[in-house]
Amino acid sequence: MRYLVCIKQTPDTAELPKVKPEEAASGELSIQQVVNPWDEHAIEAALQMAENFGGLASVISVGGEKAIEALRSALAMGCKDATLVENADADAWGVAALLAGAVNHMGDVNVVVTGQMTVDGNSGMVPVAVARKLDWPVLTGVAKVLNVSEDAVEVERVVGQARHTVKVKPPVVLSVIKEIGEPRYPTFINIRKAARVKIPVLSADDLGVTVPPPVVHLSNFRKPPARDAHVQLFDGPADEAAGALIDALLAEKVL
Amino acid sequence: MDFALTTEHKMVQDMVRSFAEKEVRPIIPEYDERHEYPRELLPRMAELGIMGICIPVRYGGAGMDYISLGIVSEALEWADASVRETIAVHLALNALAVFQWGTEEQKQRFLVPLATGEKVGCYGLTEPAAGSDVAGLKSTARRDGDDYILNGEKMWITLADVADYMLVFAKTDPEKKHRGITAFMLERGMKGLTTGTIEKKMGVWASNTGWINMDDVRVPKENRIGEEGEGFKVAMSALDNARMTVAAGAAGTIRAVMELSIKYAHERQTFGQPIANYQLVQQMIAKMALNYDIATMLWQRSAWLKNQGVRNTRETSQAKWFATEAAWQAASDAVQIHGAYGFSSEYEVERYLRNAKGAVIYEGTTQIHELMQARYALGWRQDKPIRCELPAYDPDFWQE
Ligand SMILES: Cc1cc2nc3c(=O)[nH]c(=O)nc-3n(C[C@H](O)[C@H](O)[C@H](O)COP(=O)(O)OP(=O)(O)OC[C@H]3O[C@@H](n4cnc5c(N)ncnc54)[C@H](O)[C@@H]3O)c2cc1C
What we know:
The complex is a heterodimer of chains A (255) and B (400).
Chain A: E1 2-7, E2 9-11, H1 21-26, E3 33-35, H2 37-53, E4 56-63, H3 67-77, E5 81-86, H4 92-106, E6 111-114, H5 126-134, E7 138-148, E8 153-159, E9 162-168, E10 172-176, H6 188-196, E11 201-202, H7 204-207, H8 238-251
Parallel strand pairs in A: 1-4, 1-6, 4-5, 5-11, 6-10, 7-10
Antiparallel strand pairs in A: 2-3, 7-8, 8-9
Chain B: H1 7-24, H2 28-34, H3 41-48, H4 66-79, H5 81-101, H6 104-116, E1 121-124, E2 140-144, E3 147-158, E4 165-171, E5 181-187, E6 193-197, E7 209-220, E8 224-225, H7 231-267, E9 269-270, E10 273-274, H8 279-308, H9 313-343, H10 349-359, H11 366-377, H12 395-399
The site of flavin-adenine dinucleotide (FAD) has 21 residues of chain B, from β1, β3 and α11.
């Protein structure tokens, strides 16, 4: 079994408020970048599957030079090998084309694992689009992997308030949610290996993929206006303060 | 010349900072309040390889270098000085001393379980009547056949009530001063060996600080670390190792209180604007930022020299002196920036201030470092080679 985790280097969410609209539009961010937090759970899922059901976990990212850092983090967590696919000017559909091309190029991938979405793009489209490009089934919202074998992959999905147990025949694309497990820490041995390894970089040409021209164009980037919030304190004896509070709540139509 | 951390060091930093943020800092306030040592962290740190981070893999460690030891110290003290102290005494003062001075047999016996974290170590030098004046220590070790009989009391010993292995110093020749001191590894359970905890302290409430009492403790000669009379050198070289971790830890304190101060300065309004707008507040934050960088460069130089196998007593003392004083100042300014809220234990800054005072006292008081630096500068002090230097970091040897 070979599991391929797809990860993206995204802005550190703690630093997101610092991003200026122009930067976001150009994609040239000056802030700290980290592995997309959802994808850390995908890495954890792949490592768990490899441990529990046999096989090995590989990791891939479509991105620029910086994405090498994200790939090294995944290697430090325990992935066996990593590949960087050069980013051509691609939207989610284009990224999916590159990832699917890489899966075909590798030839022996049984399960593609992704996070639920990215903290920058927020579309959640890539796993579904990869599956579409590969013509594989896709299971989203995966909370637990129950079994993996040559014949069947059995998972628990969260769908709204419900939970489904679903079995499919691999190959398959899984997009996992946080519940799958807390991402593990890297080990020092893996850090040493990950820091030294040379990560191969493939282009669309290497993969024989023609990247579809982007169909999604973001026409307007802006920050939401700051919320106009204020705090009101009610002093005085409890019954008076409570009365004043109720009046205020009624006036604001909260009650 | 290169001031940047390597890819490997950055990854170590990410990993330990994430551990400190997720698993250490959130649990500290409660332990601190209860004056209790967070023992639950020991198996966790062992599992992650932190307890023996800079010890070669062949001796049960994680095979990383001395810079990684500093990175760990900085990250842990960002959470709380008490946890960094654990690494300082267990790893830098005890395990590294065995690595540096121990025989191969002692490395197998003591270093391996220390590095894996199966056993915890501490370091007992200070006595009720001898702190800075190490040569004035009163504990004795009398030879009796193949054993030594130890008597005396050690005071202010970090992890006294937690440690399994205690590296203590006693006089085999009470007539002599430095040259009469010998180092021994005591093991918990030895007859006549008792320990206790000092309950009333100003800071590091989440650390265990205590005493060790030795009442005719029979110690086999196999537990003697180094030769008879070499104990002072063992003790001082161990301090060279640990002072780097204290300095790096102090940088962690500065980072923590600076973050808290910046956040608060943006939030707190007086006279219709955030206090961050006032230059007098800005000045305190600017000093924290400057001192964080200086402290970082100083501890990193010390760790780098250790990696090279170059004697670094002078540089390490500078790092410890500067960084701990800067941390004490930064924590005090952080309380000032927080006003009365800083004075309240509802906010974290007062804990950092209480903890920071310890570090300008232990591992050589500020005054002792000032004296040392003056003696170096005046040309009155030169470091002579010692029989066992801390081995230079060699990735091949460490990771094999
Ligand atoms: C939280 C904590 C943890 C500790 N952990 C350990 C541990 O794990 N192991 C261990 O062995 N010890 C430990 N210690 C003890 C610590 O190392 C000593 O407290 C320290 O060395 C100072 O010794 P002292 O307290 O006896 O002070 P003293 O040596 O009595 O000094 C008192 C004052 O006199 C000054 N002074 C002393 N001599 C001179 C001089 N020649 N010139 C100018 N000024 C001088 C000092 O700077 C200080 O201001 C710990 C202490 C604390 C507070």
